[in-house]
Amino acid sequence: MPNSELMPIGVFARRCGLTASALRFYADSGLLRPAEVDPVSGYRYYSADQVERATALSGLRGIAMPLTTVAAVLDAGSDEASRLIDEHVATVLGDAAATRRKAAVITSSLAGAPSLPITALKGPVLADAVDQVLTATARDPGLPVLGGLRLEASAESLTLTATDRYRLASRTLVPADPPSMTWAATVHGDDLRAAAAEIRRSVRVRLDATPHGIRLRRADGEDHHCRLLTEEFPDHRLMLASLPGATTRVTVSKVLLLRALEEQPGERIELRVTGHGMDVLPAAAGHPGIPLTATVTGQALRISFELTTLYPAVSTAVGSDVMLDIRGPGQPVTIRSADRGDLTTLAMPVTTGPATERADHNDPVDQSDPADRNDRAGHREDRTDREDPGRARRQGPRP
User: Fold this and answer.
1) What is the pLDDT of residues 89-139, one digit of tens each?
2) Euclidean distance between CA atoms 258 and 262, whole angstroms
3) Angstrom distance (rounded) from CA 319 to CA 49
4) Is residue 228 classed as helix, strand or coil in its secondary structure?
5) Where are the strands (E) in 307-384, listed by range?
6) Per-residue b/e over 9-30, b at no fewer than 16 CB within 10 Å?
7) Cα–Cα distance measured from residue 399 to residue 383, given in angstroms and rounded to the nearest whole number
8) pLDDT for 165-219, tens place per residue?
9) Which distant-in-sequence residues (6+ apart) come within 8 Å of 181 by Cβ?
10) From CA 218, how far away is CA 120, in angstroms rounded?
11) How far is Cα 372 from Cα 356, in angstroms, rounded to an integer?
12) What is the pLDDT of residue 17?
């Protein structure tokens, strides 16, 4: 007779989330043998201390892990088990990406329409632009277009744009060979992200348009097909046209600003701009700010951001110094290189009462000459590369 503390196979199966037939299979394969088998009836019994192994076994098989790897994970220490799981996940994702690319090529060929050459660019340059702009995408099942990247070809350039409604990133590239036509499409961000790692190693990449996507052609390797998104991309050009002029401009070291953001606790950051520079403070009271040397023109003010909005906008900027153009309450802040304008990011501040406040009416910022102030007030030189990503978080975003 079996030990009264043992469980019949049916009870054990319900407790660990496996079927009785699966338990028999794992017993025969040596992964999970029963604690006892009745020599007369052949009934299998399991102990309570086997539940943990059975549950882990069920989970590993649920992520399509091969039996040999499952056995290695179950018998390994925690560090080795984690390494084996990560290695398996990487393999699965790589296989899925390869399958998706092959399927996209087959789908494109079924359309029967020839691809249209758009332009050609240096592989590393295009890959860098894709990585920089994709930082402004978001995964939203209700708005899949926010995970895409807008490509727009004109007679002189190719512009890449993405927005998650709280940020907008845009970079304009000037190919050696001008685009052959005016063209625009929204491309799946995950497909471009996967392709960027490969095209980075190609000296030259040709971009062709197909009925259902784009094809990135490499002279020295495999072509990459990226799917199109059919949803309408937000009308960023209309929003750009409605932006008011900047009232405050701050130029500061990118490295020092990033370091200050990293050192501040909490999820929200306040920037306090005065005539003496800029302080980076946490939103919570009681924590000291970090003073930064900065060149400031315009109004003194305070403005707050979510760290997850401001940090990526600064980190992807090109060059050693970044320039912040601040417009006023509830308006997006433009963040770009102080000396290069081909990559521009707009970031929405957080509105907690007045979104932007005068820091100190008795501490005016040094003023430049009137011609420069007029230029800032009417600042429009890169509007074709910027967008109002939407309203502040507390007011609700707009698509």
Assistant:
1) 999 988 887 777 677 666 666 655 577 899 999 999 999 999 999 999 999
2) 6
3) 59
4) strand
5) 321-326, 333-337, 343-347, 356-357
6) beebbeebebeeebbeebbeee
7) 19
8) 889 999 999 987 788 889 999 999 999 998 998 899 899 999 999 888 899 998 7
9) 116, 118, 153
10) 10
11) 22
12) 87
Residues 246-300 pLDDT 10s:
999 999 999 999 999 999 888 999 999 998 899 999 876 667 789 999 999 999 9
Assess contact for 96 and 63: CB atoms under 8 A: no
Pairwise pLDDT comparison (140 vs 366), residue with the higher score? 140
| Alpha helix positions (H), the chain | 9-16, 20-28, 51-62, 67-75, 78-111, 123-133, 189-199, 236-241, 254-263, 307-315, 370-377
Burial group, residue 289, by CB count within 10 angstroms (0-12, 13-18, 19+)? middle
Contact residues for 237 (Cβ-Cβ < 8 A; gap 6+): 384, 387
Mean pLDDT for 389-396 is 37
> In whole angstroms, what is the distance from residue 69 CA to residue 355 CA?
54
Q: Is 81 helix (H, G, I), strand (E, B) or coil?
A: helix
Whole-number pLDDT of residue 211: 84
Convert the pLDDT of each residue in 369-391 to its tens digit. 333 433 433 333 333 333 334 43
Provide the pLDDT for residue 101.
66
In order of 54, 139, 178, 349, 392, the CA distances from 167 in angstroms are 46, 14, 29, 10, 10
Range list of H helices, 143-264: 189-199, 236-241, 254-263
According to DSSP, the residues that pair with 294 across neighbouring strands are 252
Using DSSP, state whether 148 is helix, strand or coil. strand
d(CA 306, CA 289): 16
Tally of residues, the chain: 399
Name the least confident of 72-81, 153-162, 328-337.
Answer: 328-337
> SS3 helix, strand, coil % of the chain, rounded to 5?
35, 25, 35
